[in-house]
Amino acid sequence: MADIKSIIAGNITALRASKGMTQLDLAEKLHYSDKAVSKWERGESVPEIGTLTAIADLFGVPLDYLVRAEHEAPAEEKSAEPAQAPRGVDAAERKKKNHALIAGMSVLLVWFVAVLAFAATDIFFRNVSRHWLILVYAVPVSMIVWLVFNSVWFNRRRNYLIISLLMWSLLAAVHVTVLTFNYNIWLIYTPGIPGQIIIFLWSKLSFWH
What we know:
It is built from nine helices and no strands. By secondary structure, it is mainly alpha-helical.
């Protein structure tokens, strides 16, 4: 009889493959690394009970499905009712799309407010000569909003890219602001070099399971 690690490994692999998911796809949905999923599927380790429950919910199967070696339904059940594919993945995909829609709308809201503020300033405060800077600073603000939603709902490893974009867009906004006062201070970008190195090294640290 196969040991429990091999049974769980085979069931996770079969469920994942049945939905056309890669190990990375499954890892992102469970907030684990693809290396962790690879270890599960090779039988080198077993997910914690909470993670097993999440996997079962994701694929729409009962928890004991993952620890059973046989999944053949009785002949009378097969003839009476065709097998239905688990619906957990479909629900997860819909949830992911809704999250992406909310995040996108939030970023667009930042630009809506920025454009509205720019237009209002242009109409009612014509003596303000640098009101276009509102649009410049909308870029780093958008990065902040994107970072928040990505940290909550999406692949957190993408945060390193977003933080890099946030840092450089903020430095560029400050530089453009300084240029309006006839100062060309290219050295404003120098903090970005060690900052980028720190972000790169941080991305190499393992904060994942």
